[in-house]
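Handout for the seminar on molecular recognition.
Each group receives one record of this type.
Step one: identify the two inputs.
Step two: read the structure output and locate the region that could contact zinc ion.
Step three: write two sentences on what you found, then compare them with the reference statements printed after the record.
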Amino acid sequence: MKIENEEALDDFIICHKCQTLHHEIPLRDGAMAYCSACGTMMYRYDSHLIDRGLALSITALIFFFVANFFPIVKIEILGHAQFITIPKTFLSLFEHGFYIVGIFCSFLIFIFPLGVFLLYLWIFTLLKLQRGERLTRRLLVLLSRSIPWSMSDIFLLSILVSLVKLIGYAQIEIGTAFWALVLFVAVDLYITKMIRISEIWMLHKRLFFPQGRGC
Ligand SMILES: [Zn+2]
């Protein structure tokens, strides 16, 4: 297959599993395209992608707000009760002098998860309004670089492990924020699985260059 210039690459899509290059073809609503070499699902066409993306981003941000500003657990040891919130966990690391770990934790469990969903919201809003072609492109690049650093799911697992270890030593009461965090992680996993960055790129191209790239 001969590629004449870099712009021509926009008409192709690569299989993320076997790296075979395919010509991108238009699909009907709800249809999926599979790799001819390995059979992996490569992309789909969903006419409601923007609305679904907006709804999921707003839902995730609401769960994120509840998960961060309400207590995750109440731990009671020898009559001394303590409410734990997510910001409190990394702030206590700073208070005890663990600055590097504190910075890492605040980025991985607070700044990146929040940033990723603010980026999703910003991108889908721009696509809905059909504005900011260049800005949307930059935000999409930033989004694909930020997603691997969002680690709320790992944080949730670590909370579960800690709670299991504490059972027997302390009285534990699960707070509202814990369930909000579970729902946030569920939306996070769902959006990562169901809305691929490549599909947003294709949507961007369809909206801003309906007749193909002329520049
Ligand atoms: Zn393949």
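Reference statements: The radius of gyration is 21 Å. The beta strands are 12-14, 21-23, 32-34, 41-44, 73-77, 80-84, 171-174.
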